[in-house]
Amino acid sequence: MNTDRAVDRLRKLRRDTLLQLEEIRAAVGVAVSAAAPAMEQSEGGSLDADAGAILFERDRQLAFELEYSNLLESIDHALTRANSGGYGTCEICGNIIAADRLKAIPYAVRCIKCQELEDGT
Ligand SMILES: [Zn+2]
């Protein structure tokens, strides 16, 4: 297991994820400020179609933000594991994580068996 190369990949992935997260946050800010006047205009409790669409867009972006935040946490966790020399081994059972799995998910810290147990699949 070439940990240095794995750490490089993780750092790059982390940078990309941060950039995407910033873009999403900026987009959420735009959607929220666009929604504000539309919501003020709608009286009597019901949102007009525009405000509804903007709110839907905002929710969608917030969901993305959550997803990317979780991804970032996973990457940080994997980097911590790499720094302590544990990259590529399962944090639950200690077995080697399959190279194919690490190729697909460089921030994986569990072998596929332990992950499946965790996910309940
Ligand atoms: Zn395991």
Task: Give me some keywords for this one.
121 residues, mainly alpha, binds zinc ion
How does this model look, in words?
The chain is mainly α and 121 residues long. The protein has one domain. The protein is built from 4 helices and no strands. Helix 1 packs antiparallel against helix 2. The longest helix has 39 residues. The radius of gyration is 20 Å and the shape is elongated. It starts with a helix and ends with a helix. 16% of the residues are buried. The chain binds zinc ion (ZN). Zinc ion binds next to helix 4.
**Roughly how much helix do the residues carry, as a percent range?**
over 70%
Order of SSEs: HHHH
Give the amount of beta strand, in percent. Answer: under 5%
From the N-terminal CA to the C-terminal CA, the straight-line distance is 28 Å
Taken together, the total number of domains comes to 1
Average pLDDT over all residues: 87
Runs with pLDDT <50, length 5+? none
Shape: elongated
> How many strands, what sense, and barrel or not for the largest sheet?
none
Structural class, by secondary structure, is mainly alpha
> What is the radius of gyration?
20 Å
Ligand identities: zinc ion
Number of strand segments: 0
- Count every helix, treating DSSP H or I runs of 4 or more residues as helices: 4
Topology diagram in text:
Layout: H1 3-41, H2 49-83, H3 99-104, H4 112-119
Helix pairs in contact: 1-2
The protein binds zinc ion.
Quick recap of the structure?
This protein is mainly alpha-helical and 121 residues long. 73% of the residues lie in helices and 0% in strands.
